[in-house]
Amino acid sequence: MKIIVVEDYQEMSKKAAEILIKKVHENPSAVLGLATGSTPVGLYNELIEDRQKNGTSYKDIRTVNLDEYIGLPKEDKNSYFTFMCEHLFKPLEIPNDHTHIPKGNTTDHLEECDRYEKIIESLGQVDLQILGIGSNGHIGFNEPGSSFTGNTHIIDLKESTRQANARFFESIDDVPKQAITMGVGTIMKSREILLLASGKAKAEAIRGTIHGEITEELPASILQTHPNVTIIVDKEAYSLCE
Ligand code: F6R
User: Which residue is closest in CA terms to ligand 1's atom 11?
Assistant: First the structure.
């Protein structure tokens, strides 16, 4: 694991953008694995700024997202589809058919998991997977106890995850109880992984990820066994590692 400790969220976002932009320059048709949530927003803004200044092209990039809530139509303002369109796909003008996110409102969620796993397989390997981390150590929506070998599946969200994400919804009752997520096994097949973490709320999970026992109770701890992981972490998130 390569650990890069930075001052704050802004520096984390800039460093991550440098790595991602370099990857896109080296391989304009790279497959990027993408995350939602607050953590990658600064990174995505940096990519948009760089594209405006330097004209980096994303027209040949292919993307696969980690997860989607079950029960929200894709047009819902809180769906990860809407999040990605607003924060990244539209501003970078990535062609629609190059972007992939699980569908959270089909009639058969199990079939959707199979379909999504096959899409990921058909793209070959994910060249660079961006990850945030939950304060309970989840990656994607693989909550504590998720199998290290799992592929795309339905997950019951932990109450703490629903509480953490309630800030985006009108009330906690509106936060979906389930999601479709790439499995830890799927994530581990990526060629390279870039995990970002900022703020005190992530400090315990980061300590476990870097120094803890490798256990399904802390899903991110499996990253210790991946051959090409970089963690960019700000001082607050790194504070329990010193
Ligand atoms: C989002 C995802 C989650 C988040 C994690 C942290 O696609 O897969 O693992 O990365 O819940 O969320 P934030 O960044 O909002 O703290």
Answer: 134
